[in-house]
């Protein structure tokens, strides 16, 4: 069904400049090569990194197998000792300088994100700006979150005691990141971990490792000792061997449910922080500003080609305004330009692979076969997928129950506010939710009743500020991200208590 303006890779006139080569991204050899410096050589292979839009190979990244785990852990142990010796002032200075360097090279980072992840250039620039902020917030957290005084002498039996607690590093943290935010989600792992004095074994997505490599290179340029972060590229068996290693004291993972469940079974006795996805609902009440709601929901649904764990997927609309909202939403979706992510006017770029686009089409086709009505989209051109809007979707279909992670939206009329909340909560997991209403009472009721880690009032579900706590309710989320909250997850309190014995501890 026609929807949106689409241009395929074969018909778009591309810029004359060739895609940048890896040597243009990194001044040093790939950080991955440093994995084996401290240990015995093992056989390595390489994996191609492809531009999602053109299919071109833009880089080849060395990969290692499980036989490298000894060398990886040996290097990480050295990094742990190095990180522990860094003063708070040094950590803050490194993160501040790295933030400034990323900002100075913002356009180059944005071009890299477009090349490997397929985000539009506008979306990539926003991701870079957020990563700059994430690193800056991490530097501020080093200076702010050092611990607290404990008022021992306020309690009977402890009158002669005084003390405090500090926040100390966990040691080695394994960080596993997805493809959809290849720079900022890596910054959300590395920034707080470095701020807390930890070493990191970083396994970025095999589909989008280049932004992670360049960020680590930038941190090293800013003064981070090279062994503090160990980047590895390899398969699921390598990841399992890292996750299960007793030396690793925490796993920070953002990705799919199946992988998250496998990590939880493999990790053993260590801390887990995981964001595994969502299926975000947005409620539109009959007193809402419909124009604003439509604009926000279109953006929230189709940003980054819908490959966004807090992207709007289910819109629950008061029946009194359902047809008005539906027609306006479909009309605005039809104006979106789908195509070359490097062109300034493109609204929706490619999905990460053609296979992902075809799988999305298959899910939508299955929903239509079960009675849903396709209002718009569901066409595939290479890795491009035209945004799909459906109504009448059965409540037990996968498009309603599961995360689509694609530019697909379901519209559903509701009879009342209570009905909307009930349907919004009828999913096993929930990161964010939203509501559009002019009623403060109703907005606050939604904030109280919606089972989600974040409730956005008069905004789409996909709003995220990098300083706020981020994580979900119910199934599919453990712990919290957001710089301050990740810092606290990645550190541990140590109590120091002084007992003032008579005649001892004299100054």
Automatic annotation (TrEMBL):
<dbReference type="Pfam" id="PF00171">
    <property type="entry name" value="Aldedh"/>
</dbReference>
<feature type="domain" description="Aldehyde dehydrogenase">
    <location>
        <begin position="45"/>
        <end position="496"/>
    </location>
</feature>
<feature type="compositionally biased region" description="Low complexity">
    <location>
        <begin position="1"/>
        <end position="16"/>
    </location>
</feature>
<dbReference type="GO" id="GO:0008911">
    <property type="term" value="F:lactaldehyde dehydrogenase (NAD+) activity"/>
</dbReference>
<dbReference type="InterPro" id="IPR016162">
    <property type="entry name" value="Ald_DH_N"/>
</dbReference>
<dbReference type="InterPro" id="IPR016161">
    <property type="entry name" value="Ald_DH/histidinol_DH"/>
</dbReference>
<dbReference type="InterPro" id="IPR016163">
    <property type="entry name" value="Ald_DH_C"/>
</dbReference>
<dbReference type="InterPro" id="IPR051020">
    <property type="entry name" value="ALDH-related_metabolic_enz"/>
</dbReference>
<feature type="region of interest" description="Disordered">
    <location>
        <begin position="1"/>
        <end position="27"/>
    </location>
</feature>
<comment type="similarity">
    <text>Belongs to the aldehyde dehydrogenase family.</text>
</comment>
<keyword id="KW-0560">Oxidoreductase</keyword>
<protein>
    <submittedName>
        <fullName>Aldehyde dehydrogenase family protein</fullName>
    </submittedName>
</protein>
<dbReference type="InterPro" id="IPR015590">
    <property type="entry name" value="Aldehyde_DH_dom"/>
</dbReference>
């Amino acid at each position: 069904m026609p929807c949106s303006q689409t241009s395929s890779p074969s018909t778009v006139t591309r810029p004359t400049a060739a895609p940048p080569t890896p040597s243009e991204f990194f001044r040093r050899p790939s950080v991955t090569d440093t994995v084996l410096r401290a240990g015995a050589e093992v056989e390595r292979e390489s994996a191609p990194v492809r531009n999602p839009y053109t299919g071109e190979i833009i880089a080849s990244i060395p990969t290692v197998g499980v036989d490298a785990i000894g060398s990886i852990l040996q290097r990480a142990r050295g990094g742990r000792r190095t990180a522990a010796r860094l003063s708070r002032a040094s950590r803050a200075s490194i993160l501040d300088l790295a933030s400034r360097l990323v900002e100075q090279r913002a356009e180059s980072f944005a071009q890299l994100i477009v090349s490997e992840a397929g985000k539009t250039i506008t979306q990539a620039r926003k991701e870079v700006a957020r990563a700059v902020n994430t690193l800056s917030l991490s530097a501020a957290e080093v200076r702010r979150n050092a611990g607290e005084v404990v008022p021992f002498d306020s309690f009977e039996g402890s009158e002669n005691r005084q003390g405090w607690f500090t926040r100390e590093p966990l040691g080695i943290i394994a960080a596993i990141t997805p493809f959809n935010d290849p720079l900022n989600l890596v910054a959300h792992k590395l920034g707080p971990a470095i701020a807390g004095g930890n070493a990191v074994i970083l396994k970025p997505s095999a589909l989008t490792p280049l932004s992670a490599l360049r960020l680590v290179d930038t941190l090293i340029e800013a003064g981070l000792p090279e062994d503090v972060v160990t980047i590895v590229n390899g398969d699921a068996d390598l990841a399992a061997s890292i996750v299960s290693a007793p030396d690793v004291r925490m796993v920070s993972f953002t990705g799919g449910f199946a992988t998250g469940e496998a990590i939880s079974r493999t990790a053993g006795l260590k801390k887990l922080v995981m964001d595994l996805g969502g299926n975000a609902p947005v409620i539109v009440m009959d007193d809402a500003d419909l124009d604003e709601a439509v604009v926000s929901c279109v953006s929230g649904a189709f940003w980054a080609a819908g490959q966004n764990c807090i992207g709007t997927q289910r819109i629950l609309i008061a029946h009194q305004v359902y047809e008005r909202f539906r027609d306006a939403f479909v009309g605005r979706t039809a104006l979106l330009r789908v195509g070359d992510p490097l062109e300034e006017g493109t609204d929706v770029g490619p999905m990460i692979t053609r296979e992902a686009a075809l799988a999305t089409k298959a899910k939508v086709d299955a929903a239509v076969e079960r009675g849903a009505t396709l209002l718009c989209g569901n066409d595939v051109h290479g890795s491009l997928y035209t945004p799909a809007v459906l109504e009448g979707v059965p409540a037990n279909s996968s498009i309603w129950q599961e995360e689509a992670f694609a530019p697909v939206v379901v519209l559903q009329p509701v009879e009342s506010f209570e009905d909307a909340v009930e349907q919004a909560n009828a999913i096993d997991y929930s990161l964010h939710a939203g509501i559009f209403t002019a009623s403060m009472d109703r907005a606050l009721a939604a904030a109280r009743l919606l089972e989600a880690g974040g409730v956005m009032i008069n905004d789409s579900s996909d709003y995220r500020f990098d300083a706020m706590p981020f994580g979900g309710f119910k199934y599919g989320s453990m712990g919290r991200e957001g710089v301050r909250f990740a810092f606290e997850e990645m550190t541990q309190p140590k109590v120091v208590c002084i007992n003032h014995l008579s005649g001892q501890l004299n100054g």
